[in-house]
Amino acid sequence: MVKRTKMVSYKTAAAQREKRDKYFKILSLLAFFLIWELFGRINLSMNWIEPKFLPMPSEIAAAAIDYFAAGTLWEHLGISLYRVLAGYILGVIIAVVLGSMIASFRIVDNIVSPILNLFGPIPIMAFLPMFILWFGIGESSKIVLITYATVIYMISYVVNGIKNTDSVLIRSAISLGASPLQVFSAVKFQSAFPHIFAGAKGALGTAFGAMVVAEMMGASTGLGYIIVFSKNWFKMSDMVMAAIVIGLMYSVIFGILTLVENVLFKWKKDAAGSAVEI
Q1: What is the reported pTM?
Q2: Residue 146: which of 157, 156, 135 has the closest Cα?
Q3: Exposed/middle/buried for residue 144 (C-beta within 10 Å: 0-12, 13-18, 19+)
Q4: Residue 146 · residue 214 · CB < 8 Å
Q5: Segment 216-239, tens digit of pLDDT
Q6: Alpha-carbon span 248 to 44, nearest angstrom
Q7: CA geometry: angle 117, 123, 129, nearest 5 deg
Q8: How many whole angstroms separate alpha carbon 87 and alpha carbon 85?
Q9: How far is CA 35 from CA 38, 41, 42, 47, in A?
Q10: Are the C-beta atoms of residues 187 and 178 closer than 8 Å to each other?
């Protein structure tokens, strides 16, 4: 009874800390924009930085309102969201399938790993001109670039997660008569799934980076295109507005993945709480 009371107390305290942390993060973000606005207004008179190169949050908000009023922001946001999700989802699927094959078959590991090690360190931007030549200036080259970036980032999480499965679990499954396919699906993959999901969350940032790069070259729509177009015409408010929208879009998708992770792996938090109590 005492142990149960302590566990409930621990969970309540943890929930209160999480709630306080959320409020603190919101206040921190509001304070950041407030300080930015104040600095920008002081800079108008002091001229420390050329004012037109340092837009204030109020000016950025005004630019966003103009885009909303014109109806173009939703168009740019929608096409960017389509590109990043299409490339990201396809990349996650390829990374899981290819990573599973590398971790399970030595011959696939020997063939594919050297190629990944050769091309993996090369910056994503270096491949965009080639992808445009191979796949054209349409959507294909952009989605392929995002897919490639996602696969390169995530595949090591898949391989390491599967290879590092506890050997005791594998031997136990084999001793109970499990087939190789059952050992992989019920033991190796399930054991590696939290690690794989963590890799998928990390790959999201890489996918967004590839999306921006792809839209900066050979595109006439998208948030990345707004950044390049605004740079050419020194529209700093529009440029920063597009960058902030990209950040917000990433934060929303990352938040959704985090919620899914909390539901799928709730047992990890429960286990951690139990361990603390013990």
Answers
A1: 0.86
A2: 135
A3: buried
A4: yes
A5: 877 788 999 999 998 888 889 999
A6: 28
A7: 115
A8: 6
A9: 5, 10, 11, 17
A10: yes
